[in-house]
Inverse folding.
């Protein structure tokens, strides 16, 4: 992902979106079923299969009928570049332009395909080479390397143990606003006081405020045991 724009292959937005979405889904499962990818992209299953075949010929994905797809190393490089652009843009919009964290996702979606590697690097330098975006997602560096952390979802966090909100997996505007109302922002200190059985709600102490969230919400909030990983 070094700055070699003169020889860099330019892909369409549709291809970049396909590869980015496949990469993100691939973090949850080894091979991504085309049906899952189709739903995430909001396109028909035949269109997804057609794109997968096209990208397999270009050696950007491995595609086996009925087994789903997996990105090749070349496909991952393209995906990580777009993810880097997106997450840098989100942080830039918050820190430099005063956007709120629930506004930036859609703006970054529009801009991520348009900026050059040079501009992405300038943004990174301006921000101090950050490691995480406003939602706690890791930002790939210029070589495509991603910082790793051991995180546990709030739904599984041990009772009574102090932790820190490190990442929010659901970044829809409605969810982010709800989490902010509860104080569950990146960097907030949290303890689980009680967890009702059978996927019942959790009673939390967030900073110095007690609140209740559902188990479904808690699974999207990821906790770190310390501040060892700097959120910048």
């Amino acid at each position: 992902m070094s700055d070699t724009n003169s020889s860099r292959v330019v892909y369409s937005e549709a291809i970049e979106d396909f590869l980015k979405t496949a990469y993100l889904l691939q973090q949850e499962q080894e091979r991504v079923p085309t049906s899952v990818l189709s739903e995430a992209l909001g396109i028909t299953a035949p269109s997804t299969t057609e794109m997968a075949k096209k990208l397999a010929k270009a050696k950007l994905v491995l595609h086996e009928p009925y087994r789903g797809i997996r990105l090749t190393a070349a496909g991952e490089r393209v995906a990580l570049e777009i993810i880097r652009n997106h997450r840098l843009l989100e942080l830039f919009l918050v820190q430099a332009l005063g956007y709120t964290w629930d506004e930036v996702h859609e703006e970054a979606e529009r801009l991520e395909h348009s900026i050059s590697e040079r501009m992405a690097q300038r943004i990174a330098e301006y921000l101090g080479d950050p490691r995480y975006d406003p939602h706690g997602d890791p930002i790939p560096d210029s070589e495509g390397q991603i910082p790793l952390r051991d995180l546990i979802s709030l739904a599984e966090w041990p009772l009574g143990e102090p932790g820190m909100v490190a990442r929010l997996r659901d970044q829809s505007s409605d969810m982010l606003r709800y989490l902010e109302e509860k104080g569950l922002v990146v960097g907030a200190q949290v303890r689980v006081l009680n967890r009702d059985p059978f996927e019942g709600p959790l009673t939390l102490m967030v900073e110095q405020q007690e609140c209740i969230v559902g188990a479904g919400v808690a699974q999207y909030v990821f906790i770190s045991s310390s501040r060892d990983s700097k959120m910048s």
In short: The CA atoms of residues 105 and 195 lie 31 Å apart. Residues 1-6, 228-232 have pLDDT under 50 and may be disordered.
